[in-house]
Structure formats: structure tokens, C-alpha cells
Amino acid sequence: MIKEIDRKLISEDELQRIVSRIAGEIDKAYEGKRLLLLAILKGSVVFMGDLMKKIRIPVEIDFMKVSSYGGDTVSSGHIDIHLDIQRKDISDCDILIIEDIIDSGRTLSYLVEYLKLKGAKSVKTCTLLDKPSRRTVAYNADFVGKIIPDEFVVGYGLDYNERFRALPFIGVLKPEVYQK
Ligand code: IMP
Ligand code: MG
Fold it and tell me: Which residues contact 176 (CB under 8 A, 6 or more apart)?
């Protein structure tokens, strides 16, 4: 194991089973619709890549980059948009936001309102991981991969200060790495 990782929380096999299950739920929910998958950079890229290959209905993709974190493990409470959705007219789009993890709930609740104000036909959310114990804003995603305890996790796209995104599994970061 990598020295900063305490233990593996979700294996590669379990991740694939989770992603397959969510893809099936999305296929059912959006049958006959024009679905736009909107990945939130950078944390959701690995999840998005696996998920879009398993969805059977036709999808289009787009990206936004936002941040609620000041580069550490604590949310700043303020959302900055660094890259906006490219599609100009979203009035005929059913948008599904793809996130890596919900923590305070601020990012997703903000983005849902933002895209609705921009005129999206519908906006729903899909997150790989969920830490419900950390909510400061009452928000729950429509599609959830796995509920996890309040520990800082990395891998499969998720980072600590831009590190560990390329790990193929989800691991728990040793608290001493960020409690310095
Ligand atoms: P929220 O707005 O507090 O829900 O924050 C969501 C964002 O915080 C995610 O997209 C991640 O970038 C980041 N985040 C929250 N918890 C973790 C974690 O355990 N590991 C890595 N990133 C995290
Ligand atoms: Mg991050």
C-alpha cells in the first residue's frame, strides 16, 4: 500500500459493480430522453469515463469546473465557477450532473439552481460517493454509488492537493497527511 493511504475502502471490482448498477438506473430513468451528462472537473473524470461506457441510451457530454475547496480538506463555503458549461441553449436538455463525492452539499445544490436558472429542461444529480454526515446544506443526489463514513478519501479521480487521482481504487488518506 502507498505510505499515505491507511486502507483500501472500495476495490476496483466493487467500483465497477457500483458503476454498472448506476448505469442501469440511468438507462431506465432517461429512456427516450435527450440526456446530457455534465461532469464536474476534475474529480469526476474517471467515474464519468467508466459510467458513460456502461450507459446504453445515447448521451452527450459536457463539463464544468467549480471549486468549493481551498485546495485542502476543508470546504471554503463559497463556489467559484472556473469553466462554464459549453452548450449555449440548454432548454431542450435533460442534464445529469456527474460528481465524485457529496460532502457539505454546497457544490451540487448550487449547481442545480444555477443550471435551472440558465433554463435547463431538467437537472438531476449523480454522485459516486456520499458523506451524508457532513452536510451543511440539505441536499441529496438522485443517483448515489456508495455512502461512506466521514473520512477523507482519494483515488479514482479524487485528490488531496492534486495527488492520488490516478489510483484505480478508493483509499482512505491517513489523517496525519493533512493534520499538519
Ligand atoms: P461539497 O460542496 O462540500 O459537497 O464538496 C464536494 C467537493 O469536495 C467534491 O467534488 C470534492 O472535490 C471535494 N471533497 C469532499 N470530500 C472529499 C474527500 O473525501 N476526498 C476528496 N475530495 C473531497
Ligand atoms: Mg477535489
Answer: none
Contact call for residues 100 and 127 (beta carbons, < 8 A): yes
Is 102's C-beta closer than 6 angstroms to any atom of ligand 1?
Answer: yes
The rounded percent of the chain whose pLDDT value lies above 90 is 91
Q: Cα–Cα distance between 85 and 160 in angstroms, integer?
A: 25
Do you know the residue count of the chain?
A: 180
Please write the tens of the pLDDT for every residue from 73-118: 665 567 999 999 999 999 999 999 999 999 999 999 999 999 999 9
| Mutational test site, ligand 1, from 46, 79, 103, max ligand atoms within 8 Å of CB | 103
Task: Give pTM, 2 decimals.
Answer: 0.95
Cell numbers given for 10: 472500495
